[in-house]
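Lab notebook page, bench 4
Experiment: in silico fold of construct C2
Operator: M.H.
Input chain length: 130 residues
Purpose: comparison with the prior construct
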Amino acid sequence: MYSLRFISALLAIPASVLAGDYSKTCGQYSTDPNDNTVLANCGDGHGGYRDSRMDMNLCLGNSGGTLVAQNNGGYHDTCYACGPLFDGPTTTFSCICGDGKGGWPVTSIDLNSVLGNIDGYLWCFDHRGT
Protein backbone atom coordinates (compact mmCIF):
# COMPACT_ATOMS: atom_id res chain seq x y z
CA MET A 1 0.00 0.00 0.00
CA TYR A 2 2.87 2.37 0.81
CA SER A 3 4.28 1.85 -2.67
CA LEU A 4 0.98 2.73 -4.31
CA ARG A 5 0.72 5.98 -2.30
CA PHE A 6 4.31 6.87 -3.21
CA ILE A 7 3.69 6.26 -6.91
CA SER A 8 0.47 8.29 -6.76
CA ALA A 9 2.35 11.17 -5.14
CA LEU A 10 5.01 11.05 -7.85
CA LEU A 11 2.38 11.13 -10.57
CA ALA A 12 0.85 14.22 -8.98
CA ILE A 13 4.10 16.20 -9.38
CA PRO A 14 3.68 18.70 -12.22
CA ALA A 15 5.72 17.92 -15.32
CA SER A 16 7.45 21.28 -15.05
CA VAL A 17 9.04 20.23 -11.75
CA LEU A 18 10.58 17.24 -13.51
CA ALA A 19 11.92 19.34 -16.37
CA GLY A 20 15.62 20.00 -16.77
CA ASP A 21 18.71 19.07 -18.77
CA TYR A 22 17.19 20.31 -22.00
CA SER A 23 20.52 20.08 -23.83
CA LYS A 24 20.32 16.27 -23.73
CA THR A 25 17.40 16.31 -26.17
CA CYS A 26 17.68 19.73 -27.83
CA GLY A 27 20.30 21.15 -30.16
CA GLN A 28 21.05 24.18 -32.32
CA TYR A 29 20.79 26.59 -29.38
CA SER A 30 20.66 30.30 -29.99
CA THR A 31 19.30 33.43 -28.39
CA ASP A 32 17.39 36.37 -29.77
CA PRO A 33 18.45 39.48 -27.82
CA ASN A 34 15.57 41.48 -29.33
CA ASP A 35 12.95 39.51 -27.44
CA ASN A 36 14.96 37.75 -24.68
CA THR A 37 14.31 34.27 -26.02
CA VAL A 38 16.27 31.05 -26.20
CA LEU A 39 15.65 28.99 -29.31
CA ALA A 40 16.39 25.28 -29.69
CA ASN A 41 15.51 22.34 -31.91
CA CYS A 42 14.11 19.70 -29.56
CA GLY A 43 13.23 16.03 -29.87
CA ASP A 44 9.53 15.33 -29.34
CA GLY A 45 10.01 11.83 -27.91
CA HIS A 46 8.44 10.21 -30.99
CA GLY A 47 11.37 10.46 -33.41
CA GLY A 48 10.58 13.99 -34.59
CA TYR A 49 12.00 17.40 -33.80
CA ARG A 50 10.50 20.86 -33.49
CA ASP A 51 11.87 24.35 -33.07
CA SER A 52 10.89 25.82 -29.73
CA ARG A 53 11.31 29.30 -28.29
CA MET A 54 11.20 30.33 -24.62
CA ASP A 55 10.91 33.86 -23.25
CA MET A 56 13.57 33.80 -20.53
CA ASN A 57 11.83 36.61 -18.61
CA LEU A 58 9.44 33.83 -17.56
CA CYS A 59 12.32 31.72 -16.22
CA LEU A 60 15.09 33.96 -14.86
CA GLY A 61 15.36 36.71 -12.29
CA ASN A 62 18.11 38.97 -10.99
CA SER A 63 18.88 38.58 -7.30
CA GLY A 64 21.45 41.16 -6.23
CA GLY A 65 23.37 40.95 -9.49
CA THR A 66 23.11 37.16 -9.85
CA LEU A 67 20.97 35.36 -12.42
CA VAL A 68 18.66 32.87 -10.70
CA ALA A 69 15.92 30.50 -11.76
CA GLN A 70 12.74 32.38 -10.88
CA ASN A 71 9.19 31.97 -12.09
CA ASN A 72 8.22 35.17 -13.95
CA GLY A 73 11.54 36.67 -12.82
CA GLY A 74 11.74 39.45 -15.43
CA TYR A 75 15.56 39.41 -15.40
CA HIS A 76 15.85 41.67 -18.44
CA ASP A 77 14.53 44.69 -16.51
CA THR A 78 17.89 44.92 -14.69
CA CYS A 79 20.27 42.96 -16.96
CA TYR A 80 21.80 43.61 -20.38
CA ALA A 81 24.33 42.21 -22.87
CA CYS A 82 22.89 38.73 -22.38
CA GLY A 83 23.75 35.73 -24.46
CA PRO A 84 24.82 32.10 -24.48
CA LEU A 85 28.19 30.73 -23.53
CA PHE A 86 28.45 27.17 -24.81
CA ASP A 87 30.85 25.39 -22.51
CA GLY A 88 31.16 21.67 -23.17
CA PRO A 89 28.11 19.67 -22.15
CA THR A 90 26.40 22.57 -20.38
CA THR A 91 24.73 25.61 -21.83
CA THR A 92 25.58 28.74 -19.88
CA PHE A 93 23.64 31.98 -20.24
CA SER A 94 25.51 35.14 -19.23
CA CYS A 95 24.46 38.75 -18.57
CA ILE A 96 25.62 41.93 -16.93
CA CYS A 97 23.12 42.62 -14.13
CA GLY A 98 22.64 45.46 -11.68
CA ASP A 99 23.28 44.47 -8.07
CA GLY A 100 21.17 47.25 -6.55
CA LYS A 101 24.26 48.88 -5.01
CA GLY A 102 25.61 50.58 -8.12
CA GLY A 103 27.60 47.59 -9.38
CA TRP A 104 27.11 45.69 -12.61
CA PRO A 105 28.73 42.23 -12.27
CA VAL A 106 28.88 39.64 -15.02
CA THR A 107 26.76 36.69 -13.97
CA SER A 108 25.82 33.40 -15.57
CA ILE A 109 23.54 30.43 -15.06
CA ASP A 110 23.49 26.91 -16.49
CA LEU A 111 20.26 26.76 -18.48
CA ASN A 112 20.14 22.99 -17.98
CA SER A 113 19.10 23.79 -14.40
CA VAL A 114 16.28 26.02 -15.68
CA LEU A 115 14.96 24.63 -18.97
CA GLY A 116 13.52 21.24 -19.81
CA ASN A 117 12.15 19.61 -22.93
CA ILE A 118 8.70 18.06 -22.84
CA ASP A 119 7.31 16.73 -26.13
CA GLY A 120 9.67 18.95 -28.13
CA TYR A 121 8.80 22.18 -26.32
CA LEU A 122 11.10 24.10 -24.01
CA TRP A 123 9.67 24.40 -20.49
CA CYS A 124 10.45 26.29 -17.31
CA PHE A 125 8.28 26.24 -14.21
CA ASP A 126 4.74 26.05 -15.63
CA HIS A 127 5.57 27.88 -18.86
CA ARG A 128 5.66 26.03 -22.18
CA GLY A 129 7.65 27.57 -25.01
CA THR A 130 6.20 28.05 -28.45
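Observations: Residues 2-12 form the longest helix (11 residues). The radius of gyration is 16 Å.
Next step: discuss at group meeting.
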